[in-house]
Amino acid sequence: MAISPTGVRPEPASFRDPANRVFHIGDEVLRGLDPQAAEHWRALTGSTFFPALVAARKVCATEDAPPTLVPAATGTPWAAVLRHERIPFVSHPYEWSFSMLRDAALLHLEILNAALGEGFTTKDGSAYNLQWRGAEPVFIDIGSFEPVRDGEPWAGYRQFCQTVLYPLMLTAHLGVDFQPWLRARVDGIEADELRPLFNGVRRLRPGVLTHLHLHGAMQQRNAAASTSDVRDQLRAAGFSRELLLATVRGIEKLVRKLDRRPPESHWSDYQSTCGYSARDRVAKEQFVAAAVAAGTRPRLVLDLGANDGRYSRLAAGHADYVVAVEQDPTVVDELYRKLRAEGQRRILPLVLDLADPSPGGGWRGVERAGFAERASADVVLALAVVHHLAIGRNVPLPEVIDWLAGLSAPGGAVVVEFVHPEDPMATRLLANKPAGLFPDYRRDTFETLLAARGRITDRLELPSGTRTLYRTVMGG
Asked: Within a 13 Å sphere around the CA of 280, how many CA atoms are in the beta-carbon half?
């Protein structure tokens, strides 16, 4: 990300709409508006629905800022500059569980429905226009609002299908996890990619015929026509705002129907099968709570391999925000539903394979920042993770330590658990590997590597005698 002499950093994901661009100055999030976008903003603030959505925390808090704060790339000053609330941790839709994507979709449709009622629409329908405050979705793309023009369809419909509706149908109707599909293409799943999977009786499943087959056929039929031609045809056919509202409400009804039947998961009952004794569990919880609470209150904690969120909840009692990472979409979905029911706004659950975390994507590989670029945590929790990476995924111990250090902010702490080779869980993993493949997987080697990257401030061997916890200040 380029930084100007004034310290202004353009947001790499905000370049597709020339009418408004997002910038960062320190922790501030700013948006420059051209004259037309500024006019739309003034009309938006004079509406009834928009302030109500902001007050209900469904749209990110936004206010006017001095126009001179953000220089325009073309040399022409922005007509207006907005200041947005800062989202604690930016995530991508392919890191969300099924219920998270569905709830984000429903919020987007609720906002669109409210906007249409007062003569506004959203010109984008992308899932990337939403983020999270813990388990609470929030709409962030203020520049997407514009006055609706009679006789025109929702401009964001195709985006919504590709980044929201098709992924939901893929999982709800076929039981296929959508995350790898969305990760593979920043613009989402094309109708042509999905249609072959919904032939025969599958065409009759909710939403498939209308939003996949018929929508795809219309795209092909109008491929040579200009956008204005299509709009003229719709106006001539009598397409009205009432029909648009009915269409949006129909999509909302469909999204509410879509659900995921969770498959059996090895990780769903991990807490009962991981081999901890009651004494181990109490000692571990006390160590983790003290390790997170030590020093300055953390702004951000990463809980890697969070499972059911036990330690994320502990950390949230001593930190501003916790990102709970787990690779199993079923486990993350269960955790999200519980957090949402609790009204939890400081724990964000994400689907992420620690051995294959989200890379940078989109234009030039920086439009969507990779997980490592977004993660600069004051505390990194890596509990019962190292043996899965080092033995289960064949990642060398030095690489594991370097990776953990790279996820922490300067002077940040890593709280890590080393499972000894003789521990039942490590023994089970080693049994599936060739003998002698991991000669360096030893406690003394692990401690040496850890001490080389930071200062070990606390150490605890659990009562079972086969696991040791460490708190290390990286770079210390």
From this structure: 19
440-473 pLDDT, tens per residue?
A: 899 999 999 999 999 999 999 999 999 999 999 9
CA separation for the pair 178, 181 (Å, rounded): 5
Do 8 and 81 touch, CB atoms closer than 8 A?
no
pLDDT in tens, 370-384: 999 999 999 999 999
Q: Alpha-carbon distance 291 to 287, whole Å?
A: 6
- Tokens standing for 253? 């009804």
Residue from 422, 426, 472, 430 nearest 449 by CA:
472
Q: What predicted TM-score, i.e. pTM, was given to this entire model?
A: 0.92
Cα 427 from Cα 421, distance rounded (Å): 6
Which residue in 125, 109, 119, 107 sits closest to 241, CA to CA? Answer: 119
Return the structure tokens found at 311: 């330690």
Distance separating alpha carbons of residues 149 and 181, to the nearest angstrom: 34
Whether the pLDDT of residue 40 is over 70: the answer is yes
